[in-house]
Design brief:
The chain is an alpha/beta fold. It has helices at residues 2-13, 104-110, 130-143, 157-167, 182-192, 217-234, 255-259, 362-375, 401-413, 439-448, 475-481; strands at residues 31-33, 39-40, 56-58, 69-71, 74-76, 119-124, 148-152, 174-178, 196-200, 237-242, 262-268, 274-282, 290-296, 299-302, 325-332, 335-347, 355-358, 383-389, 421-423, 426-427, 433-434, 453-456, 468-471.
């Protein structure tokens, strides 16, 4: 009888109270968000981390010291270990050596290649080339002796075969399966025994017995967890294709990004051949590298030296300059990229002038406009202002602030900057030009393309041969020296 009362009390402590809200007594084990994985002591209708509604679920209380594991309110005995614990110096790492993909730019982002058992999430907008890139990776893996299996849930096997024939990604050890059921995917893995598994995409796979439709929070979480367990148990490299939202974020629960080992973002515009792969998370290498690719009818190809891709014809030595353009050098990972910022200032009769930005951070551009107007006395109250980059590159680094400011001033005054000038530096609210890292590498990359003058913050280090480097302490000093020959 006492056991019955205990069980009833335990069930009542986790039963939702009036109005559907869980009782505070369930908080003995805390609450966990099933979207982002964050934990909370108290229940709330909205997660304080990811701002999703109705995602907090009660968790079982943690076991007391000396007690067995708690599962479903009952004590459970410890399970048998799969492998004994070893000193860190005794752990064998030969089985986790990287295997190159055959695509140098992708290897750069991954940190040298694919690690056995790693789970990689590749996210990008529709039509950007995710499937084409991974089909090429799978074909090169098969050619190197590592069997590859591509599971597609969005296309038929015949459609994938046509793309493989068009891009030359054909090999007898490249296998293709069209499935949308998790059980069928795992059966294919068991029968084919691949070394590389590509799932295109994780939002199209569903698990039997799990609530919700394919692509929902619960389904994506369960499917990903099952694929991760399989990858770790078999040492299978698994690449998951993920969709993105209209804001550019990975679709589905944020917990998905926490579960996988590597998160790659595939960026590019449909009307541009340039594609960029950025590492947002990497447990096996750098998380700030970028790979450059060019996509055409024959497939996707890596670009070893992207310098000059983000410049217009008006940039560089010996060419005619145009008002409203300025060149800067940004650093992606350890790679300097020379890029051009363009600005246009046009008078308008509208009550509210327009501000349009492409390839730059709109908040930083708005801040730079305010600093230029306040410190340099350049008025934009009756003018539309447009700012953009060339070649579809996105400049999020503050080192592009000075070039953006000078391009806007040049457009407002309708006076071009010298064609062989680069500007590097962060602009503060007081108008000061702050120092940035890797100035020497930036200047060397600009000098290699024919730029002979540079405006930089104080103490830039030695200048490259043939380049005149001018230190500018603030925005006013930079504006006064930007037309000097």
């Amino acid at each position: 009888m006492s056991d019955q009362r205990t069980n009833v009390a335990s069930m009542a402590s986790t039963r939702p109270s009036a109005g559907g809200r869980p009782s505070s007594r369930a908080a003995s084990g805390g609450f966990r968000c099933n979207s982002c994985g964050s934990e909370s002591v108290r229940w709330a209708g909205r997660c304080s981390r990811c701002q999703e509604w109705g995602t907090l679920e009660a968790q079982a209380p943690a076991p007391r010291r000396g007690a067995g594991l708690v599962a479903g309110g009952r004590s459970a005995s410890s399970a048998a270990v799969t492998a004994p614990a070893l000193p860190v110096m005794s752990v064998d790492v030969t089985a986790t050596r990287r295997r190159p993909t055959g695509i140098d730019e992708l290897d750069r982002v991954l940190g040298g290649g694919l690690v056995p058992g790693a789970v990689i999430l590749l996210a990008g907008e529709p039509g950007v080339g995710k499937s084409t890139l991974l089909l090429e990776v799978a074909a090169r893996s098969a050619a190197a002796g590592a069997r590859a299996l591509v599971v597609t849930g969005e296309e038929s096997a015949a459609q994938v075969r046509l793309r493989a024939g068009r891009t030359g990604a054909l090999h007898e050890d490249l296998w293709i399966a069209a499935e949308t059921d998790l059980g069928a995917v795992l059966r294919h893995v068991e029968e084919v025994s691949p070394a590389l598994l590509v799932v295109d995409s994780v939002q199209t796979i569903s698990a039997a017995g799990v609530d919700g439709a394919a692509g929902g929070v619960t389904q994506v979480r369960e499917v990903t967890a099952a694929l991760i367990r399989t990858a770790k148990a078999l040492g299978l490299v698994t690449v998951l294709v993920g969709h993105v939202t209209k804001d550019g974020l990975v679709a589905g629960p944020r917990l998905l990004e926490h579960l996988v080992d590597v998160v790659l973002h595939f960026e590019g515009e449909r009307h541009s051949a340039l594609r960029l792969v950025r590492a947002g998370k990497n447990r096996y290498g750098p998380a700030d590298e970028v790979g450059c690719f060019e996509m055409d009818d024959s497939g996707i190809h890596g670009i070893a030296d992207p310098s000059g891709l983000f410049l217009s014809r008006s940039s560089g030595a010996g060419l005619e300059a145009v008002p409203g353009t300025c060149v800067t050098v940004t650093v992606e990972g350890r790679r300097p990229l020379v890029a051009e910022v363009q600005a246009l200032v046009a008078e308008t009769s509208a009550q509210i002038p327009r501000r349009a930005v492409s390839g730059l951070d709109p908040a930083r551009v708005a801040m730079i406009l305010a600093v230029v107007e306040r410190r340099a006395k350049v008025r934009f109250g009756r003018a539309d202002v447009y700012a953009a980059t060339v070649g579809g590159v996105r400049l999020a680094e503050p080192a592009a602030d000075l070039a953006t400011a000078l391009a806007i001033v040049s457009a407002a005054r309708d006076r071009p900057l010298p064609a062989d000038l680069v500007a590097i530096g962060e602009v503060g609210l007081a108008g000061e030009v702050r120092a940035v890292g890797s100035v020497r590498q930036r200047l060397a990359a600009a000098a290699r393309l024919g730029f002979r003058r540079a405006l930089v913050p104080a103490d830039p280090g030695p200048a490259p041969d043939g380049m005149k480097v001018t230190e500018v302490p603030d925005l006013i000093g930079a504006i006064s020296k930007m037309h000097e020959t």
